[in-house]
Amino acid sequence: MQNRRAAMTDNLEIASAIRTLTTETNGLQALAEALENGLGEAFVRAVDTISQIGGRVIVTGIGKSGHIGSKIAATFASTGTPAFFVHPAEANHGDLGMIARDDAVIAMSWSGESAELKGFLAYTGRISIPLIAMTANPASTLGRESDICLELPRVQEACPHDLAPTTSTMMQLALGDALAIALLEGRGFSPSDFRVLHPGGSLGASLTHVSEIMHSGDELPLVAAHAPMDETVSRMSQKGFGCVGVIDEAGDLVGVVTDGDLRRNITRNMMTLVAADVMTRTPKTVSPETLANKAMAILNERAITTLIVTVDQKPVGIVHLHDLLRIGVA
């Protein structure tokens, strides 16, 4: 009986979760449809305005809108658009001084009538700072006083009482992300730029270039194609990568000899063979500019542990699985 009751409870909770997700998905769909209509024009103006300022984007909002605004500001900043969040209550007690004439303000309020935003409205109007409103009520004080009004479609909240901000905050967050990505794409923000702003953790590690972690020079295990097997095995053992690159007379990489190649040829008289007799031809290589996460993906896909780094077919380095794990690429 207890198991049956537990199953019924689980079913009710899952049904509730699905209703919430469906309602919020409907809200995002309504937002996408709005962008194809009147909201799209205002969105383009907002992107153009932000891209032309010489300062920063100041995001503000109170309550749940404030929490979402803080995240939007962080997303802007991490994707190349300098931004920070200013709490409207603190702004009314001196923090308005953080806003300069070459900044732009994004003010968020579902109703558009949040009393705490009045200081922002007066200040931006007085010194002609561009004000972008994000609200569901363009006829509100915020909507009327703004230079650009991003009107959010009115939709049902996921809350069964249609009270707790859920779908509405999801749309605010999504529209903020859309602004950030449009600005990112407009300025050609690259993975290298992204890494500068994200030097720590697995994200920073994944944006490391292979050239920064590869072994080169005397550490690079190489033998000539005609090298006898005793020399080939000795070089493999000395360098400790479990493989050795094979080069032709021009110095181009023509193959690689791995532990697996040795095992596959164990029944042959190895002392009569040369490196070219047992090597794997046309091995998988990467360039020095390859990102670490791409190198890891290749290793996983090929079920191998090393990659030789080449420039114009000439080996310049080698990167091992352990090098990638060491810097935090997962």
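[next item in queue]
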Amino acid sequence: MKLPYGATLAAATAVALTGGLLSLATAAPASAAAAKYADDFNGDGYRDYAVNWSLDSKGGGIRVTYGTKSGPGTKTQLISQASAGVPGADEADDMFGENRAAADFNADGYGDLAVSAPGEDVDGREAQGAVTILWGSAKGLSGGTTVPNKAPKDSHDRMGSDLATGDFNGDGKQDLALVNGHKAYVYRGPISKSGVGGSVTTLDREGLFYATALIAGKVNGDNKTDLVVIGDVLTDKYIASDAWFIKGGSAKLYPGKTLRLESQNGNGGSSDRGGDGVIADFDKDGYGDIAIGTAIHSTLKGRVSVWYGASAGPDTSARFTQSTSGLAGTPEAYDEFGTSISAGDANGDGYQDLAVGVSGEAINGKEYAGGVHVLYGRSSGLTGTGSHWFARNTAGVPGALDEADQFGHQVRLRDTNQDGKADLYVNGTMGPVRLLGSSAGVTTSGATTLDYEDVVIPGTLQ
């Protein structure tokens, strides 16, 4: 999944760099079984954090913060195309690290990381793009393998415009999905240091549909990962965006129904209108539900669409805006409700909850101050009832309310201290904060400001 609409400030404002590629020695896994966590790159049993880190190289890079039992630790690793064993060269505007997706592709007990460089020039073709797999090890991520380009090789196709991982055919091997030239491609495993061993499927919907984002997860309750392709739809009368459901299958993938995310009269070029999302079980019925934040909806008032899973795939849908009963505020132009969304169980009741960033919210006359809603899951699904609102002027939230902070331009729910409750990480241009999960939901009690070196928010990994 990619960073959502309106969140492009993040990488530039996230952090000041400390240099060098650190060698992180940890014990190797006891067996060669696949990693418990896709993003446990050094195999120590704790989830790690990979973010886009573009300030220390010409063409971009990633910074990995290694996890501990209490959350992000102090060990870090910087990787660019200038790092030993990483294919390519560190060249201006490559955008290496812009999109990332984790999986233990070679099932050696260490999580690996697929990284795109959508601005990479290849054989004179400007911004053809490229994707690299960085390999996990006891010392962290090390070396890389190029993913072959199976699309027509054209300039400005931006291979790796988005990435997603999963076992789409249920054979136990991790696969890779990517956007290339506004189409989606699924590379089947095995994927190893020697290359991609499986077949490649092209997903191209009829009509003028331009794929922009991918969401992977299990929607219909079987053992195969499903895929949602978000894309722009163009006609001579309107421009819109759809979510297109692709059912996983052992022999092939099965294109299914679509959900309209937004539309407007007139036409125009592709512009990543639909946003991005997550798959999580908000009603605890055993089926994954698809949540998509579309910040551009209705003059950037924004909206979140939830498409509930069922045995045959996604079924009923619900829409959430700041006019939804129980949610604080009112929908206003340029609020960008749904700028960023993330799912996790913040109160430990077994239902997945949803954090929704509203980066453009004006507060006390300060434009683009921003804030975050947390909606809680229950047997009937997500609802605004009992939701929580957090902004810089909320008692207990660190930092001063400031114009253009865009607090909430990136959010993440993750159980980083292993207490069974997801913590809420929120980023703003004035710096990120961590709000702890509790039996009552996200709370400001014990809230902390993160040092720039500890930023984990710009990552797309849930």
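[queue empty]
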